[in-house]
Design goal:
Strand order of the largest sheet: 7-6-5-4-3-2-1-8
Number of strands: 8
Distance between the termini: 21 Å
Helix content: 40-55%
Low-confidence stretches: none
Strand content: 15-25%
Order of helices and strands: HEHEHEHEHEHEHEHEHH
Largest sheet: 8 strands, parallel
Radius of gyration: 16 Å
Mean pLDDT: 97
Shape: globular
Length: about 210
């Protein structure tokens, strides 16, 4: 399954940004076991490349493992070398351009119409509306008026209630960090993570 199909089918990207590399790895595995196959590991987390490398070795080549907070061309290259097969950026820039050049699926951070146009011209896979909480579902609905066919993925402050509102506004998927992961990636509660994973999957399956 290619990334665009997986995104539209699963409708959920889990985002891990942890202070504890071992806990972050356990969080990846718990999410995979909870049948959440699209997982982003932010490069701003502790030893993120090692987490990606270990997860790739454990989950195999077919798993969708993203590197997030990719800012530079070097970030993109190192993420790909570690095993990331999805690149997520907070905005436009060298990291995104290098990822597209390498042919990697990309989720590009945008907020304004001009950024949407620029990202689309680069040939990105999907558009990460970030920070989505700055405008909410109403902003996504307005943004889709001139871009009705483009795949938007709101990220930032998305809980289960707001996720449904974003889907109603036309989002193809949502990206969720702390409302899903909680403190698991810092050594916290994996059982709570599994419970929240089920709640998010239920919303995304509607």
């Amino acid at each position: 399954m290619d990334f665009s199909t997986a995104l539209r089918t699963e409708r959920l990207v889990a985002i891990i940004r942890g202070r504890d590399p071992e806990a972050s790895f356990r969080t990846v595995m718990a999410l995979a076991e909870a049948d959440i196959p699209l997982i982003e590991i932010s490069l701003s987390g502790a030893d993120a490349l090692t987490v990606i490398r270990r997860a790739r070795a454990e989950l195999g080549d077919a798993a969708w493992l993203g590197a997030g907070t990719v800012l530079t061309g070097d970030d993109a290259r190192r993420a790909a070398e570690a095993g990331a097969n999805l690149i997520v950026t907070p905005g436009l820039g060298a990291g995104l351009e290098e990822s597209v050049r390498q042919g990697l699926p990309t989720l590009a951070g945008v907020m304004t119409p001009s950024e949407v146009i620029a990202a689309e011209a680069l040939g990105v896979s999907a558009l990460k509306l970030f920070p989505a909480s700055a405008g909410g579902p109403a902003y996504l609905r307005a943004l889709r008026d001139p871009f009705p066919e483009l795949p938007f993925v709101p990220v930032g402050g998305v809980d289960t209630t707001v996720a449904q509102a974003y889907f109603d506004a036309g989002a193809v998927a949502v990206g969720v960090g702390s409302p899903l992961v909680g403190d698991a990636a810092d050594g916290g509660d994996l059982d709570g993570l599994r419970k929240r994973a089920g709640e998010f999957k239920a919303v995304c399956a509607r």
